[in-house]
Amino acid sequence: MADNYRVTCASPSYIAAHDKPTQTDALADLDFIFLLMSAKPSSGRHFWRDGKTVNVRVPAHRAHATDGGAVAREWALEGRGIVMKSIWDVAGA
Fold first, then answer.
1. Considering its fold, how many domains does the chain have in total?
2. CB 88 within 8 A of CB 7
3. What is the mean pLDDT of each run of 10 residues along the chain (93 residues)?
4. DSSP strands (E only) in 1-93
5. Model pTM score
6. What CATH number does residue 73 fall under?
7. Would residue 48 count as lying in a domain?
8. Domain, as residue range, for 19
9. What is the DSSP letter of 38?
């Protein structure tokens, strides 16, 4: 089996319209697309940096949520925000 892991993705148009973040703190100022895994929406994202977990809270007005993985991918491709997706789902995008 192939390895699977999540990657942070955004369309070229989204990156062109916003400053490319260089620090995890800057991510809170960007739009995020959340894939709902339960009825309870998430209010943040977890990233690994230098072997440690970094939590980034996303304000509600910057969050878009869906329970469909294909919808989240399409929104990201349309430039609606940043999404964390399986490498399997975005490898060919």
1. 1
2. no
3. 80 90 78 74 62 70 82 93 84 68
4. 6-9, 32-35, 44-49, 52-57, 63-66, 82-86
5. 0.73
6. 3.40.190.290
7. yes
8. 6-90
9. S
